[in-house]
Structure formats: structure tokens, C-alpha cells
Amino acid sequence: MEGFRDRQTLIYTFVLPVCMYPALGWIMIQGLLIVQGQNSARDVTVGLVAPAELAPEATQAISARPEDEASGGRVEVLPLDLPPDADAAALRSALEEYDAVVALPGLPGGPKKVRVLFDSTRSRSGTARDRIEASLERWAEVLRGRAAEERAIDPRALDPIDVSSESVAEESDQANVVLSLLLPMLLVFMSVLGAFFPAVDLTAGEKERRCAETTMLLPVPMTAVHLGKILAVCASAMIATTLNLAALALSAGHLIDQLSAAADRSIALELPVGALVKILPLAVLFAFFVSAALTGFASLAASFKEGQALLGPVQMLFILPAMTAQLPGLALDSTTAFIPVVNVALAFRGLLVGDVNALPLALCAGALLLLALAAIWLSVRLRSNEKVALSGETLSLGSLVGLLRSK
Amino acid sequence: MTQTQVASSEIAIHATGLKKTFKDPERGAIEAVKSIDMDCRRGEIFGLLGPNGAGKTTTLRMLSTILAPTAGTARIDGVDVTEDPLEVRRRIGFLSGSTGLYPRLTGRETLRYFGELHGLEGALLEAAIDKTIADFDLSDFVDGHCGSLSTGQKQRVSIARAVVHDPPVLILDEPTTGLDIMASSDMIEFIESRRAAGRCVLFSTHILSEAERLCDRIGVVYSGRMLASGSLDELRAMTDAEWLEDVFRALVRRADADRDRAGASA
Question: Does residue A141 share a domain with residue A205?
């Protein structure tokens, strides 16, 4: 109760994360839309290399903008004084003055390769490339129609093979794959952030407030006091994670609507509540592991500020492996099940997409249980050390082994 | 050292050969307390007198089970500090500059928390809280967060916290250090009231006038050893000195001379 009355702990543990994810998501999407809008609105200049008889039609075709993008930027096409079969060096040289260069080899009538030169390091050049490709696609459609009409045949006959690829995955499954990449990492982050400040407050903060000795006078076993602290930190981590997920779920609808509009297609993304329930036992074990480890390490610090500084690098021990676990091709198996943090992130991912075998999952749960117990032992052992409990100065991480060996 | 023979049932604190060694990676083993023998009786105020670094705080921390002795034994109200530290904690009230209050709990919540953990419950607990609030005149601020109280108010809540369970033994580490005149006077009155209630009070100080005024018996601690203990008259007789300051100096000089002799003969 004492810990939960600290405004700083409440803000950093509960309020900030709850507000942070929706706010960050909103800012990112607004930023994306602004960038997209700016890209769409800007004018580009294209150099055209084409035979004289083809140039007017090509200019018109490339500079034409689709009706549904009437508000978009213009494509200005300027003829280049180069032969249609100009070599690459000459075209590349011309590209220095234009956003893109289009080289048309000759009159239409057979398959001809149209070269579009652009500079992928220049954003404007990329925009020009996109517009040129779309324009050429539309022009090709027109030319195909015209040729078919001249031959009095169905235009579709000029495209004897019509390839259409479509994914058989349900939208919800696709959404699960996206979530399975993001959520495991977020769950690890949320647990670590949720445990961070209570762990510092109940250990280093207590020393700073000169209450550590007061607690040691309580007529209860000190092991029970230490376990109670770990439990309180773990409860904070789990509450913070739950609130974070709830905030994500509540704000997801609004964010997805904006993403759908930006991507011009429907995106169905929902938090998979069923899968999250399956994750729960592992998440609880992981929260105990994180809480015990952070509480133990924070015990070395003599003040809240020093505790924060000490746990800064320690929390990276959790966050970096969680990020590594997002690498494509990595999955939970009998080997990865024993790698701390990576195992739980992979297990989360597997459970979210429903693609995980029982044996690695059981091994992961067993390994996590052992890790949690080891972290609890380490934390209790450290906090039972007289030097750790009463020292007026922060002890270094390097002294850890010595402290664990002495009483 | 003069020790008046008393019945063992009268002894509230008994320590023999108490020793504490700290291991320091740079300085090696540090003997903070080398050997302390002492007896404190019920209804008595016993003062541990010594300069800073003499080992007073370490001794009191061992007696209150915060630190484990490296060697020797100590019994509080008949209970061994090493064998049953929880029972020892139930029988003592301990107060020092390091035993701060939880700043986000109110004074009343603090009393309830400590009262409950000391085994009080129900009407007994409420009665104990009410009595403590009345005894220490806390009613005006007992429902405010401890962090927002003045130094004097904090000190009164701290004392109340230490005695809410009415322990037979009270251990105080330099209880008047840092207090203003009024708060210091309140503390001295409180210590005398505990003696009047038949409790044993052991306190450390380096303020000679405080020891002279309050203590029934005084133990002089220097360099981790108990140089002598007894009533003021007994200490005067030992040193042929009148004032406590001179008594203290005489004992310290004698100890230094003994150490020098031991060093020379070695």
C-alpha cells in the first residue's frame, strides 16, 4: 500500500504506459499520413527519351494523373535530346537534372522494354518512379485496347495468360501474424516497465527514505518480507501489462481505421483474447522472473536515482533478447526453449498464431519456472545480506558474486 | 568492572562476549565490536556511553536482531537473539536515526501496521492505538501522512510506533540527536516514564549530561569494548574522578595505556 501511494511510481508504472501506446500510435499514423500526403502532393519532373513520332503521346500518357488523384502533384514531362537507344551512362547523366528518366525504345507494335531510371536514395525520385509505372500501366492498357480494336479481336486475347495471386489466409489470421510479431515484444516491454519503478521504490527507495531498518524490525521472517516485495512488484507488472493491453485494445479501432484509410484497404486487427488467455500462465511466470531479478538488482542501490541508473542496463537484458526473438525464421523448439527471454517471446508468438508444439512449450515453461525460482532465490539472498540491507552507498554489480557468497 | 549480583529474572538484557566483524574488500576484516558484556535490568535505564565509532550502534543493532553477532551471545527478556530473532523483535521497541517512518502512511496507519504485526488485533489493537495516540499527544496530526509531518511530530510518531505493543525492553540509539530543545525534553520525559512503568531502557549516547541525568547505570564503550559499567558512583569509585567527563577520560586513558603495553610486549 505504501508503495502504491507514491505518485512517481503510479505515473511511471500505470498512467504513462496506458497513455503512451495510444499516443505513440496516433503520432506515428499522423506522421505517416502527413508524409504520404506530402509525397502525393509534390510535383515531379521526368525526362523523356523517345522517337519524335511517339513523344507527344508518351508525354501525354506519362503526365496524365488518375481522376481519383486529382489533388495530387503534377508530373511534368520534358523531352531529352538523346537517341532512343542512348546508353545507360548518358541516361544516368540526364537523371542528375530530373527526378526520373524514361527511355522508350521505339514505336509500339511489339514487346519493347521501357527503361525507367530513378535514384532510390531520393524520395522525390521514388515518387516519380511510382507515378511513371502507374501511368505506363494505364497507357499499356490503352495501347492494348487500340491494337485489339484494329485487329477486331477481344483485348483479353492479347494477354493469353492472366496471372492473379490471392492469399487464402483469413484477414484475422493475417492480423494474428502481424500481432504475433509485435505483441511478444510489447508484452516483454510492458512487464519490464511495469516492474521497474516498484522494484526500485521498494528497495533503493526504501533505503533512501530510511525505512529499511524499520522494516527489518518487523516481527516477521525477513524472507517473507522479501517475498512480499517481489509479489508486490510482480502484481504491479501484471496490472500494468493488463492496463497496457486494454489501452491498446481500446485505441486499436481508431488507429486501424486511420491505417486502413492510409493503406487504401480494409485491415482487420483485433487483440486475440483467446490466445492471450493461453499466454497468461507463461506471462505470470515471466512477470515473477522479471520482478525478482529487478528487485534483487535494485537492492544494491542506496537511492531511487541510483536504482534507476543501475536498472537501466539490467532491463536491456530483457528487452534486447525480446527484440532478437522477432527475427524471421526463429521459432520455439527444444533448443530455443532454454534461452532466457527469447524462449518466452517465441512462445508468445507461437501461441498467438496457434503454431507451437507441446514439447518445446513444456520445456519453455519448465525453464521459465526454474529461472523465476533462481531469480527469487538470488533476490532474497541478496536482500538478506546485511551489507546490502544497511549499506549507505550503492554497491556495484561487480560485487554481486561476493555478496551472494557472504551473509 | 563492577556487577551487582541480581536475580536472573530481573535481567532484561544479557550479553556475553558480543562481537561483530565486517568484511571489507579494501580494508579486510573490521572488528566493529570486539567484546561486549552487559546486563540491563527491568525498571532500569542503562546508558551506553562512548565516542562516535566506539561500537554503540553496532551493539544495539545486534541486540535488536538487525545484525547477527559474529560471536558471543545475547538474550532479550530471556530469548536468544540468534535462536529466535522474531520473538526478540516482539519484545523490544527499537528507535534510531535510521528507523524512519513510511512517509506515505498516516501516523494511525503506521501504528495499526506495527500493532497488527506485533500480534495485536481487534479491540485490543484499537485500544493500544488510542492509548498511544493519547500518551504522545498525536491526535492533531495522526491522520496526516508521515512524510508531511514536522521533525518533532515525526519523532513522536516514531516513539509511538516503537512502543505501540508495550514492549518490556526499549532500545534507543542516540535518541536525542538532531532534536530541538522541546523534542529532546519530550524524549527524556518519555524515557523516564518507561522506567516508571517498570520497563528496561537501553540507550546509547555521547552526551554526558544526558547519561548523567537519566541513567541508573552506565556502560562505557570504547574501540568496540566495554571498558566499565556500573552506577555513576561505582564508576567514580573505579576512577577516583568526580565528573562523568573525567570518569570517561580516565577509563579511555587506561584502555589506551593497556593497549600500548600489549602492543609493546607483543
Answer: no
DSSP state of B66: S
Q: Which of A135, A158, A181 is the last residue of a domain?
A: A158
Task: Say how many CB pairs under 8 Å bridge A and B.
Answer: 62
Pick the closest to residue A63 from A49, A77, A73 (CA basis): A77
| Residue entry with cell 492509548 | B131
- Are A238 and A132 in a shared domain? no
B24 to chain A: closest CA residue: A387
Classify the complex by whether its ipTM is higher than 0.85, answering yes or no: yes
Q: Is B254 exposed, middle or buried (0-12, 13-18, 19+ CB in 10 A)?
A: middle
Of the residues A158, A179, A198, the one at which a domain ends: A158
Question: pLDDT per position in chain A (407 positions), as tens?
Answer: 776 777 766 776 677 667 766 776 677 667 667 766 767 778 889 999 888 888 888 888 888 877 666 557 888 999 888 887 778 888 888 888 888 998 887 655 555 678 888 887 777 888 888 888 888 888 888 888 888 888 888 877 777 676 666 656 666 666 666 677 788 888 899 999 999 999 999 999 999 998 999 999 999 999 999 999 999 999 999 999 988 888 877 777 676 666 666 666 666 666 667 777 888 999 999 999 999 999 999 999 988 888 888 888 888 888 888 887 777 778 888 888 999 998 999 998 888 877 788 999 999 999 999 999 999 999 998 888 888 888 777 777 777 777 777 66
Number of domains observed in the structure of chain A:
2
Put simply, the chain B residues between 105 and 124 with a CB less than 8 A from any chain A CB are: 105, 114, 117-119
Q: Are B82 and B127 in contact (CB under 8 A)?
A: no
Element (H, E) at A192: helix A171-200
The span from the CA of A104 to the CA of A125, in Å, is 18
Residues in Cβ contact with B198 at an 8 Å cutoff, skipping those fewer than 6 apart: B42, B43
Query: Can you give the C-alpha Rg of chain B in angstroms?
Result: 19
Which value, to the nearest 10 degrees, does the dihedral of the CA atoms of residues A109, A110, A111, A112 take? -60
Alpha helices per DSSP H over A267-357: 273-298, 304-324, 342-353
Of B90, B102, B103, the CB nearest to A219: B90
Decide if A80 contacts A48 (C-beta within 8 A): yes
Grid coordinates representing A226 are 522479501
Q: Which of A299, A293, A284 is nearest to A314 (CA)?
A: A293
Residue to mutate among A4, A213, A304, with most B CBs inside 10 A, is A213
Closest Cβ–Cβ partner in A211, A387, A399 for B102: A211
Rounded Cα gap, residues B46 and B221, in angstroms: 13
